[in-house]
Amino acid sequence: MASSITENLQQVWRELPEGVRLVAISKFHPGEAILEAYTAGQRIFGESKVQEMTRKYELLPKDIEWHFIGHLQTNKVKYIAPYVSLIHSIDSMHLLAEVNKQAAKAGRVIDCLLQVHIAQEETKFGFTPDECRALLSGGQWRQLPSVRLCGLMGMATNTDDLYQVQREFDSLHALLKEAQATWMQDAPWFRELSMGMSHDYHQAIRAGSTLVRIGTSIFGERDYYARS
Ligand SMILES: *Cc1c(COP(=O)(O)O)cnc(C)c1O
C-alpha cells in the first residue's frame, strides 16, 4: 500500500538536518496534491514550467513560496517576476539581466542561483564551472540591483555509482566555497547550495546541500500525460 503525501513528507522532514530546506517539487501534480502537502505544513514548492507555476500560484494559498527550477526562457520571465521567491536555474548572463529588468518593473529584488553543470550527461543546462567563475569575476552582475545572487544549483549524473554522485556534489560545494572566498566576500547571502533529488538527496546533504529538491519521494511518480 502506497503511503500518503503527508506521511512521505514527514519521512523526508525527519531526515533533513538543521539548515537544510525542502523544496517540494510539485510539477505535473495537481493543486489538490499541493494542498495536502500545504496542510501538512510544507510551504516551499518548486515547479519547472512557467504557465503551470503561475496557474498554481493564482489558485493556491498566498503564503506559499514558489521556486522555479526548470529551464527559463527570457520571454517568460515577466510572468513569474511578480511572485517567484527563488529562481534556481539561471544559466546565462542574458537571463540574469532579464530577471533584473522584470524584477525592477515589479518593484522587487529576486533571489537567484546560478545553475552549474556538474554531471557527465550532455543534456543538462547550466554553466560549466569555468563559465561560472568567469561570470562572477566579470562583475557585470554587480550592476543588476534587482537580482540577488544567493548561491549555486546543480544536478548530479543519474547513475548508481554513488561515489561519482558524491564527487559531483562535492565539486559544487568546493565551487561555492571558492566563490565565497574570491568574489562574494561582501555578499554573505551567497550561501545556498541547491542539490539533491529523490534518488540522491542523502549524498547531497552529506556534501553540504542547503536546499533539496524532492518530488517523487513525496508525491509519487509523475504522470506526464495527464493534464495538470
Ligand atoms: C523534477 C526535478 C526534481 C525532482 O526530481 P525527483 O526525482 O522527482 O525528486 C529536482 N530538480 C529538478 C531540476 C527537477 O527538474
General description of the model:
With 228 residues, this protein is of the alpha/beta class. Helix content is 39%, strand content 18%. The protein has nine helices and eight strands. The protein has an eight-stranded parallel beta sheet with strand order 7-6-5-4-3-2-1-8. Strand 3, helix 4 (77-80) and strand 4 (86-90) form a beta-alpha-beta unit. Helix 6 runs parallel beside helix 7 (162-182). The longest helix is centred in the C-terminal third of the chain and has 21 residues, at 162-182. The two termini are 24 Å apart. 39% of the residues are buried. It binds pyridoxal-5'-phosphate (PLP). Pyridoxal-5'-phosphate (PLP) is lined by residues 25, 27, 48, 69-70, 155, 197-199, 213-216.
Which structural class matches the secondary elements? alpha/beta
Report the span from N to C terminus: 24 Å
Oligomer: single chain
Computed over alpha carbons, the radius of gyration is 17 Å
Number of strands: 8
* Count of individual helical segments: 9
H-E order: HEHEHEHEHEHEHEHEH
Which consecutive residue ranges, at least 5 long each, have pLDDT under 50? none
The percent range for helix content is 25-40%
Q: Name the ligand types.
A: pyridoxal-5'-phosphate
Order of the strands making up the biggest sheet = 7-6-5-4-3-2-1-8
| Strand-residue proportion | 15-25%
Average pLDDT, rounded to a whole number, is 95
Q: Strand count, sense and closure of the main sheet?
A: 8 strands, parallel
Shape: globular
